[in-house]
Design goal:
The protein is an alpha+beta fold. It has 4 domains: 23-162, no CATH class; 178-237, no CATH class; 250-333, no CATH class; 338-416. It contains 12 helices and 16 strands. The strands form 5 sheets. A 5-stranded antiparallel beta sheet has the order 10-7-8-9-11, with no helix packed on it. A 4-stranded antiparallel beta sheet has the order 3-4-5-6. The protein has a 3-stranded antiparallel beta sheet with strand order 14-15-16. A hairpin with a 5-residue loop joins β8 (196-203) and β9 (209-215). α5 crosses α6 and α11 crosses α12. The longest helix is centred in the C-terminal third of the chain and has 45 residues, at 365-409. The chain starts with 22 loop residues before the first helix and ends in a 7-residue tail after the last helix.
């Protein structure tokens, strides 16, 4: 029976905990590698040491929530997001150097197979999963070690990893063999031919990308689409997309001499002057004052954010937010407010909702009535705006599909 090398379905020993893998954290220097080590359990020693880990201790994956000392010098731990096995120094010293994690930590997804391979008898004592013999643990664990750590496996055992024995090694060989070919990088439907797929291809060596029409039947029975190699001599290549007009917000400069400072209170004038002196660093590393940004570079609008019952104010420059005081935001009326009516209604609704949360069970009837009214207003405005925007979205979708169809009809093969 063959198994999918891309997914470890029969993880021995330690139960899976959903969350981020800790493999990168646990992979420390392993020290000097000795000569090859035979695939056999280490000799039994009387003193295996101990692992001083308890609930609340730190681990590579956060605070420890569960501890299981399932063998002398061997402990399983779990956290809110992940888990693994910790070996005592005495136990860890018997792991061959190419496979040894100097920290003694082995995360539960893949690295746990390493201690399982060298201490299989101990893992028969754990309470998780179906019972297995030590030999079954050992055999399965070494297969996983070879699958995920082929280079370290070869150094530790002296055995060569053959094609098909390690998905990591197979991926490396495939990438090297086809580094100058277009390889599958994504797919979509064809808008002109239901018997074909629109395949995005990428050349790893040059990072060139292109789109091709490939018959659906070419993928029949293929387990791993990532290894599909596009043949430009057989698969029609689409012309490049026409340059798209930047649909982002337009920047506009403003003359700050138009601000009527005499209408501001002394405190508001002070806030405005302070904000305009504030210096900002852009993505290119240039530093400018807010005044220079507004008058020379340009901004696209003003906006308001709400969080936990508090409003914060900002000027927008494309995707960047330049935070300012409420006084400055209100003074710069020549800069357009980018908020829609539903966005303003949401702010009002959010503020009342936050006050009710703070009141807990002491919220007044008036507060709840205002909450219901503002929520209804927000929903009404949102629906109106969606109805107004729907024809625009639909027209854009039709244009996009028409452009795609034209490109597909113009697709051609490249002579070999």
């Amino acid at each position: 029976m063959t198994t999918n090398p891309l997914r470890r379905k029969d993880k021995p020993g330690v139960p899976h905990a959903a969350g981020l893998t800790g493999g990168a954290f646990a992979s420390h220097d392993r020290g000097e590698a000795p000569d090859t080590v035979a695939l056999s359990a280490p000799p039994v020693e009387k003193n295996w040491g101990s692992v001083n880990i308890s609930e609340g201790s730190r681990s590579p994956w956060g605070e420890v929530q569960h501890v299981e000392h399932f063998a002398e010098g061997m402990t399983f731990i779990s956290t809110a997001g992940h888990g693994g096995v910790k070996l005592s120094p005495q136990r860890n010293a018997l792991i061959p150097a190419p496979l040894r994690r100097r920290s003694g930590w082995y995360e539960e997804d893949t690295e746990v197979a390493i201690p399982e391979a060298y201490f299989p008898e101990e893992f028969t004592k754990v309470r998780w999963g179906a019972p297995r013999t030590a030999e079954e643990f050992r055999e399965t664990a070494f297969k996983h070690v070879r699958d995920w750590y082929p280079d370290e496996y070869e150094k530790a055992t002296g055995e060569s990893v053959l094609p098909g024995q390690s998905h990591v090694r197979d991926d490396q060989l495939f990438a090297k063999t086809h580094e100058n070919d277009f390889v599958f990088a994504g797919s979509d439907r064809s808008v002109t031919d239901p018997e074909h797929l629109l395949i995005r291809g990428r050349v790893a060596a040059t990072e060139e990308t292109a789109e091709f029409l490939v018959p659906r039947v070419a993928f029949k029975g293929l387990d791993d689409y990532r290894r599909f190699v596009i043949d430009p001599a057989r698969h029609r290549r689409l012309p490049e997309k026409a340059p798209q007009e930047d649909a982002g917000p337009k920047l506009q400069t403003f003359d700050l001499s138009d601000v009527d400072a005499s209408a501001l209170t002394p405190a508001a004038r002070e806030s405005l002057e302070k904000d305009l002196r504030q210096r900002w660093r852009d993505e290119a590393g240039y530093v400018r004052s807010l005044r220079d940004i507004i008058e020379r570079d340009g901004v696209s609008g003003r906006t308001v954010y709400v969080n936990e019952g508090k409003r914060s104010y900002a000027l927008l420059q494309g995707s960047s937010s330049l935070r300012v005081s409420a006084a400055t935001w209100k003074a710069l009326t020549m800069i357009p407010d980018d908020r829609t009516p539903s966005r303003v209604a949401y702010e009002d609704f959010h503020m009342v909702a936050a006050s009710i949360d703070r009141a807990g069970g002491r919220a007044t009837r008036e507060q709840r009535a205002r909450y219901d009214k503002l929520l209804a207003r927000y929903n009404e405005l949102s629906e109106q705006e969606r109805a107004q925007e729907r024809p625009i979205w639909e027209a854009k979708a039709r244009r996009k599909e028409a452009d795609q169809a034209a490109r597909e009809r113009a697709a051609t093969v490249t002579p070999a």
